[in-house]
Please model this.
Amino acid sequence: MVNVAILGYGVVGSGVYKVINENNSHVSRRAGDTVRVKYVLDLREFPGDPAEDVLVHDFDVILNDEEVDVIVETMGGVEPAHTFEVKALKAGKSVCTSNKEVVAKWGFELLQLAKENNCNFFFEASVGGGIPVIRPLINSITADHIKSISGILNGTTNYILTKMADEGIAFEEVLKDAQNKGYAERNPEADIEGYDACRKIAILASLAYEKQVDYEDIYTEGITKITAIDFWYAGQLDASIKLLGLAKRQNGVVYAMVAPFIVKANNPLFGVNDVFNAILLDGDMLGEVMFYGKGAGSLPTASAVVSDVIEAAKNKGKNIPILWRPEKRELGSVDVFETSYLVRVSGLKAVERLREIFGDAESEIRYERNKEEIFKREIKHAFGAVEFIEGQHGGEVAFVTGPMSGADFEKAAEDFVIENRIRIAEV
Model:
């Protein structure tokens, strides 16, 4: 008998209870032993719910029960989730969690506790929800050096960007639609500012490059500045815009970031729309492989959690080592990271200033008549633009740069009025 305790009976926790009970014969057969939910911990009451008979309100009841083998933490948030996980592992109970905040911040510490106490800490659902990516990364793609990881890691932002692309709707309007449909929280900051994706790419980078990647060190940029005009220009490039979490080894340095990217049609991530997520791994021997599916939701996420429960049951009393060393991985600066950009320019600061000082009616007419030509000449000189996009909006000039460092871009941009700039994902 493998006894499981579920901490938190919300969306994911109730899903775990449902999967274990409704698929019990299948789950138990895969685990090699009968799996049952002995406890559900929550502060609330659930009258009439199937879990009512196993509901408890005191974590110590679970901690002190020697029959409990596996603890599933689906509470969310940092505390008391982290404290409960630490206590469980110290008591020799394996922990399975979907909690990305805890894994990103204390992943190594919890893995080390599991090792010291001959149990396991598993977190498959912490990155891709129902998408299996953690176990393939640490167990299957082990002969390769990971060149890069790029992923659509947040379903809320992907839904918003998809609606903006398909229907030309402004960001604020689509956000309200996402909130009404339950895809976005009332306070959507963690999603739209990229913080959720940041924690997920920190976990993947820590595993891929085997040292602690602190999410506080990851450059993070959200989607609030993306407009319908940006999508129009992206369309001219046969591309769309996605919020990507990226970890990449470039010239011997590991970089990590979260930002909107132009994703062209020949990129496997281009067709990932609505609330779906995908993670694209590039190994030096394997090449590219993509994991695609529902990145959130009760049953998809619960499915991944229960897969961890099965793994913990199969390895009862035996620790499965996971390479994640405590040494901090120093990340390369975005000032050094090289990428191409789609840039929208609406003015040239130096020329505008000259008009203020010396301008007269005739020089202003000449300036307006030749503004686009002036822009293009100065843009080529400053940015080394490789392509101008025809069909400009409101006097703007839009163009694509070749690969350039973040510092070189910022230097080139000093003399221009930049309406927006979006990095371009490599194919």
